Amino acid sequence: MADVRDVSALQVRSTMTVVAEPTLCWAIRNDDGLLVEPVHQFVAELAANGTSPSTRRSYCHDLLRWLRFCEAIGTTWDRATTEDVRDFVRWLRAAPNSQRVRSGKGSRPPAGSVNAATGKTYLREGYSPRTINHALSVLSAFYTFMYESGRGPWSPVPAPQRRRDHVPMRRVRYRQKVPIFQPRSVTEAALHDLFEVLRNDRDRALVAVALSSGARAGELLSMTSRGVDAGQGVFAIEPKGGLGSRIWVPAAPESFVWIARYLAQRPSDQEDGPLWLTLRPPHQPLNYFALRQILERANARLGTNYTWHDFRHTFSHRILADDRMTLTDAQALMRHRNLETLNAYSSARLDELVTALHRHLATPPPAPSPTIHYDAADMAVLFPGLTP
Questions:
Q1: Which DSSP category does 3 fall into?
Q2: pLDDT for 308-321, tens place per residue?
Q3: Over the stretch 256-268, which tens digit does the pLDDT of each residue have?
Q4: Which domain holds residue 203?
Q5: What are the phi and psi torsion angles at 133 (to 5°)?
Q6: What is the CATH number of the domain that holds 201?
Q7: Does residue 362 lie within any of the structural domains?
Q8: Are 223 and 206 in contact (CB under 8 A)?
Q9: Residue whose C-alpha is closest to residue 89's, from 173, 29, 150
Q10: pTM, 2 dp
């Protein structure tokens, strides 16, 4: 039997990179600066299927990790075996995630620790189970395309078994078990403290919009100056997977008050364009990194670890707790295609569970009911000859 590969000592040193590409948005270039043709063909297929540029970028990064791993173990993608896929998963489980490396790491809380203020766990250093499962799905799609087009071998990634009615399905080989996390919604008291430490009206407007609309970070950044209709109480965004299309989203009146206060001080006289700009000159459209830094500064003051997606969870928790809202209303406001997606947002918060438990414990148990006795004469009639 062959020895199991020691992935802990594996040195992945390839300089292949994901690069922006004019026609297909994203591609991978090898160490010589040439396009990796199999990936280029696969991305062309993704583009023809109408996938968004962000999806193609994500797929390229997953394939980049796989190609680098293959190079490190001395093989190529078209000669890789199922055992190589297994070791790839083992390597991902043990390797540090390069996207988690931040400057000033010594001052940050330990990876995987729990924040005492929010109860949320900090991201661990390695790749999450969801990331590993996504990588396997991308590899499966890549090899299926290459095989069906006659450009590659049969997929070495184990495929899921066909589902049978009323028969539980086993998890597919190498697919990771995804842990169940508690809801990430923020309490009202914590939101009050957060607003207290925000520095300016732009940041307060961003938080107010996110809280009252459930807008994702990318949707917030897609807002434009002309895409705000305070009279109707709506603003225009490019939704997730919108591919350039825009929809109108309702929000609370208070959020438009904060937007108006921000616009009164907005450092630009452009008639249209991105709504959110940096405060320091030269004033540029806010990007995702700058948006994240807004909460990073607030977290440093409060000792918390809030993210922008926490506000989406808070918005969903609020509307699902309102008896006047139907599930279809919540689905439309959250912009979900399926009702089942709401399950991730419908669980009770930890503080609510504590309150419910204390209320239960404070309620005295019901008094014991008296034991029922049967009359001996009645028993004799029902069961003649029965001696008491």
A1: P
A2: 999 999 999 899 88
A3: 999 999 999 887 6
A4: 188-309
A5: -65, -40
A6: 1.10.443.10
A7: no
A8: no
A9: 173
A10: 0.78
